[in-house]
């Protein structure tokens, strides 16, 4: 399992998301034996956590451009998660 986690950490967001989508499709098909379903579910949860972590990090980096009185960009403000900025 530690080997799988290290592999996930080496994936790009897009790679992890594609694999997560593949895991979901396989689970939704209903053609997977129970033991394999449990393993797939665990893998999917690790992929989901990795994707969410990367999305959270990206969101924290987003900045809103603040316009000055002349309408030109005057600087930036941190992204407001609640949409109140």
What does this structure look like?
The protein has 85 residues and is of the alpha+beta class. It has a single domain (2-78), classed as Helix Hairpins, CATH 1.10.287. Helix content is 64%, strand content 13%. A two-stranded antiparallel ribbon has the order 1-2. Strand 1 (63-67) and strand 2 form a beta hairpin. Helix 1 (2-10) runs parallel beside helix 3. The protein starts with a helix and ends in a 7-residue tail after the last strand. The model has no long low-confidence stretch (mean pLDDT 83).
Primary descriptors:
85 residues; 3 helices; two-stranded antiparallel ribbon; alpha+beta; Helix Hairpins
By DSSP, the count of extended strands is 2
What CATH architecture would you give?
Answer: Orthogonal Bundle
Indicate the multimeric state.
single chain
CATH overall fold name = Helix Hairpins
Report the C-alpha radius of gyration, rounded.
Answer: 19 Å
Proportion of residues in helical segments: 55-70%
The stretches of 5 or more residues where confidence is low (pLDDT under 50) are none
* Helix/strand structural class: alpha+beta
> How much β-strand is present in the residues?
5-15%
Q: What separation lies between the terminal Cα atoms?
A: 42 Å
Sheet with the most strands, sense and barrel status? 2 strands, antiparallel
Shape: elongated
Topology as a string of helices (H) and strands (E): HHHEE
Mean pLDDT: 83
Q: What's the short version?
A:
The chain has helices at 2-10, 13-29, 34-61; strands at 63-67, 73-78. With 85 residues, it is of the alpha+beta class. The longest helix is centred in the middle third of the chain and has 28 residues, at 34-61.
């Amino acid at each position: 399992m530690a080997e799988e986690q290290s592999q996930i950490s080496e994936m790009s967001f897009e790679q992890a998301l594609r694999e997560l989508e593949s895991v979901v499709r396989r689970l939704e098909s209903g053609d997977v034996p129970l033991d394999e379903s449990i393993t797939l579910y665990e893998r999917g949860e690790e992929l989901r956590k990795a994707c969410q972590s990367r999305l959270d990090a990206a969101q924290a980096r987003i900045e809103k451009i603040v316009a000055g009185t002349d309408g030109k960009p005057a600087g930036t403000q941190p992204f407001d998660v609640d949409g109140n900025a």
